[in-house]
Amino acid sequence: MTRKSMRPIKNFFSVLAFVAVTSVSGLALATPESDLASAENSYAALDYPAASAKADEVLAQRGLSHDVLVRATRVAALSHAALGHADKAKEYFTLLLGYDPDFKVDSKLGPRFTEPFAEARGYWQAQGRKPSMEVQAVMQYGQPGQIRVTTVDPMNNIKRVAIGYRWAPARDYTNVTVDPGTRSVDVPANPSGSGRLDYWVRAMDAKDNAVFEEGTPEGPKTVIVNEPARGGGGVAEEKKSFFGSGLFFVATGVVLAGAAVGGYFLLRPTEYTPA
Q1: What secondary structure does DSSP assign to 65-107, as a single string?
Q2: pTM: predicted TM-score of the whole model, two decimal places
Q3: What is the side-by-side strand order in the sheet with 132-140?
Q4: pLDDT-derived band of residue 250, with 50, 70 and 90 as boundaries?
């Protein structure tokens, strides 16, 4: 086989390799965020079939952040509602209100949107409780503290709560996992030279999606603890009362003396009566 006859074969394999590399690169670059952006762009362009399909693909993935989870569920709910898929829209609206209880549908969108949303809202009203997560970091300088987490989850979507904390300037987090409900995680006292606690909390579902989230490992919440001011001998100085000071007694004497003099001139007779 001549070199000239081999050129088409080489060109074929070159094209095949290029396609393979391009496909792998495209797969590597695909992320939940990029897929979500595609879904939102399709919805904005009124391409509801593409928007709903892409949103469903995002929600089929694992480990979604709270922001991605909420936005993807919102696109799925609105797209299915626009397509007239009432049952599917109601399902997604119900999930969406579990992730974002304050979400509302614009009444101007019409009954295709408002009716399934009203049914989803009625479901949550019947529960009597809104899903939520409250986090409180209780810390004091030089003392062990706690991170307290309370989750309210009528649908039992939350399967576990992940908590991470670190005392700056440490880079690595101490990670702890607890069950849903009301839980506390003990945090050791701040080490010498450190007064800032970084922490994050995620309430996750069965697919490790963040149903609720307070801070992230990349953008944590912080608590600052300051060393209490101390006087001589390591004991905090007590504030002296003005009423117990010598200045108070001096001022009091001046006031009394002034009152006596004023009383003398006020009460003395104004006319002279000879004896």
Answers
A1: -HHHHHHHHHHHHHHHHHTT-HHHHHHHHHHHHHH-TT----G
A2: 0.70
A3: 132-140, 143-152, 182-187
A4: very low
